[in-house]
Design a protein that fits this description.
single chain, mainly alpha, Methane Monooxygenase Hydroxylase, Chain G, domain 1
């Protein structure tokens, strides 16, 4: 344990930041999984309702990723990569459904 006051403060600050970053990263993972589940439901039973639900979940995930990047929990390239992969998954499902229909 640190003995110097400034070092003690840095330990407290880094712990606070670690918990905040953990919260953002966990939320991004959760929202990503919810989006992918909604996307699978859309692929299984294509309808305007399931498509709208998947789009809404995508928007929520994008928003949380952007907030995590803004707060410094994620690097901006990591955020861009995650958003790109989510959008690509949507396009893949959308194109396979368009071919099947």
């Amino acid at each position: 344990m640190a003995n110097i006051k400034s070092a003690i403060k840095r330990v407290e600050i880094s712990e606070r930041n670690r918990l905040r970053n953990k919260s953002y990263k966990s939320a991004v993972k959760t929202l990503t999984k919810r989006y992918l589940t909604a996307l699978d439901q859309f692929a299984a039973a294509p309808s305007p309702d399931t498509k709208q639900e998947a789009e809404n979940r995508l928007a929520v995930a994008f928003s949380k990723i952007d907030k995590a990047v803004k707060r410094g929990a994620l690097h901006r390239n990591t955020g861009a990569r995650k958003k790109s992969r989510l959008a690509l998954a949507f396009k893949r499902h959308e194109s396979t459904i368009a071919i099947d229909s």
